[in-house]
Write a structure and sequence with these properties.
InterPro entries: F-box-like_dom_sf, F-box_dom, Quinoprotein_ADH-like_sf, WD40/YVTN_repeat-like_dom_sf, WD40_PAC1, WD40_repeat_CS, WD40_rpt. Helices cover 23% and strands 32% of the residues. The longest helix is centred in the N-terminal third of the chain and has 16 residues. It folds into 2 domains: 57 residues, no CATH class; 341 residues, Methylamine Dehydrogenase, Chain H (7 Propeller), CATH 2.130.10.10. The chain has a 5-stranded antiparallel sheet with strand order 1-3-4-5-6, with no helix packed on it. Strands 2-29-28-27 form a 4-stranded antiparallel sheet, with no helix packed on it. Strands 7-8-9-10 form a 4-stranded antiparallel sheet, with no helix packed on it. It is an alpha+beta fold.
Length: 518
């Protein structure tokens, strides 16, 4: 026959079974050889429908020993390697229904199955289903690590500072509208960063290990020592392995996160450094000396000093050339580093539409149209940058709001902000609806003020004056684990996919690594 089914096409390639049959036939008598060969030959010439009729007759004349033999033989003969015979698109569709464990079993069957089971097409789908969110099917969530895309995690926070002196009254609103000229920021060539790609299966495997370690939790701990006073802020670039800490000792320190070695000390501020942020081309810091400084990312030398605030600068955040800064007099300034000028966000003090106390954190939101800030006046405010006016106020804390974190997928398909979490000196953590300002829930557990908060799509982490670090489930709001480092109040905290980094009032920076646990 010209047309051959999948099974006989495969036999033409292997030809092992046919050779076995010929050897068995050769051991029979000549008459039996002729008879059996005739049966095979005549059967092969029949059409598909006639073959069924012939088989029915053979089964009818067969006794139990023959039927038992057929039953045992058919189990093996009817197995079909669909990975080999089906188009790859259909195979991928079938394998998409398997979980990670089953896919690993697929890869152990044979070479062709391993090639299909290890395919980036399959494992990329698995990663997109689990990474940076909890899977709706299995309930697992995997971290978004730097092997997928470089991720920078900012953290600016406050510390319980007995030396900190409040101003009697905030700056006048009329002063906030002045445009303060600064020298335009010159372009500093970015430092090239080579990011290696990995197979998606390896990426998934690494994240699975980290996810299990977070749930236990299981981690290695490294203490970075060098500051002689409390750590006020942290900023971390996971892809480059660079961490910069800001301290009450007037300095910033740059650390190689992989070795724990201090690779640079940034000196220039004359009072405590409150916030820091950096990228490949610049490092920006703020200080209670009323200045903002820009540093070279390789030499760690100060290349620009920005002046304009009339009070100590408590917090900063920038996107591209737009920089926001918050001061202890309640004033928030927005700086255009390209044009070399700034303006202040104004509002009505009596209506709580402008901060009346220290602005502990500012953050420019994606799109550079809105800004979020929190203050010692117990409020958090969402601002419209273009109109320089507040959009809504988040009120509910009964103590100074020290920090906040946006609860959103950083690189997910749905990266819209839905909730924001705040930490306050009233010992509580509150979760808010970002779009309405409505309070969703309050998390209790800390026995003293909360100074640091960070969050991703899976968990919330918090540091407190009670000297503890807590991990919270983002969906249930339950505390899943508490670290008790006992180094003093935890004054700053940041969360990456594989690390939990904290700074405390003793000047120590503690790095907990959930990937390399040994």
């Amino acid at each position: 026959m010209n047309h051959k089914c999948y099974r006989h096409q495969k036999q033409d390639q292997e030809n092992n079974k046919e050779l076995t049959l010929k050897n068995q036939l050769a051991r029979e008598s000549k008459d039996d050889q002729i008879l059996i060969s005739a049966i095979w030959d005549n059967y092969s010439k029949l059409s598909w429908s006639k073959r069924s009729l012939a088989l029915n007759g053979i089964l009818h004349y067969s006794c139990f020993p023959q039927l038992s033999y057929l039953s045992d033989s058919l189990i093996e003969l009817t197995k079909v390697d669909f990975i080999t015979i089906l188009p790859s698109e259909i195979c991928y569709k079938i394998l998409n229904y398997l979980d990670a464990t089953s896919l690993c079993h697929v890869s152990q069957v044979c070479k062709s199955w391993k090639e299909m089971g290890d395919s980036d097409v399959i494992w990329k789908r698995m990663c997109s289903q689990h990474i940076d969110k909890k899977c709706s099917k299995c309930g697992w969530g995997l971290p978004l690590m730097s092997t997928m895309k470089r991720k920078e995690i900012p953290c600016e926070s406050s510390m319980p500072d007995p030396k900190r002196q409040k101003t009697c009254s905030p700056s006048k609103p009329s002063e906030s509208t002045k445009c303060i000229q600064i020298e335009p920021l010159q372009h500093i060539p970015p430092v090239p960063v080579k990011i290696e790609t990995k197979p998606w299966k390896q990426i998934y495997a690494e994240r699975s290990v980290v996810a299990r370690n977070w749930r236990k939790p299981k981690c290695s701990t490294r203490k970075l020592l060098g500051h002689v006073d409390g750590v006020m802020g942290l900023y971390f670039d996971q892809a480059r392995g660079l961490l910069i800490s800001a301290s009450f000792d007037h300095t910033l320190r740059a650390w190689d996160i992989n070795t724990g070695i201090c690779v640079g000390i940034l000196k220039g501020h004359t009072k405590c450094v409150r916030g820091v942020q950096f990228d490949e081309s610049k490092i920006i810091s703020c200080s209670m000396d009323k200045t903002i400084r820009i540093w070279h990312p390789k030499t760690f030398e100060c290349v620009r000093t920005i002046e304009g605030h009339t009070a100590g600068v408590v917090s900063i955040h920038y996107i591209d050339k737009i920089l926001a800064s918050g001061a202890k007099d309640g004033i928030i300034r927005v700086w255009d580093l390209a044009k070399g000028c700034s303006f202040s966000l104004v509002g009505q003090v009596l209506l709580n539409y402008r901060h009346q106390d220290w602005v502990n954190k500012v953050k420019i939101l994606p799109g550079k149209k809105e800004l979020l800030s929190c203050s010692d006046d117990n409020n958090m405010i969402l601002w419209d940058i273009d109109s320089k006016t507040p959009i809504r106020t988040f009120s509910g804390h009964v103590g100074p709001v020290q920090t906040f974190a946006l609860m959103q997928p950083q690189h997910g398909l749905n990266a819209h902000i839905r909730r924001v979490v705040t930490g306050s000196l009233d010992n509580t953590i509150k979760i808010w609806d970002f779009h309405t300002g409505k309070l969703i829930s309050t998390l209790f557990g800390h026995t003293e003020g909360v100074w640091g908060i960070d969050a991703d799509a899976i968990r919330i982490v918090s540091g407190s004056q009670d000297q503890t670090v807590k991990i919270w489930d983002i969906e249930t709001g339950q505390c899943t684990y508490t670290f008790t480092p006992k180094n003093g109040s935890v004054t700053s905290i940041l969360l990456s996919d594989t690390k939990l980094i904290t700074g405390d009032e003793s000047g120590a920076v503690i790095v907990r690594d959930f990937l390399h646990t040994q």
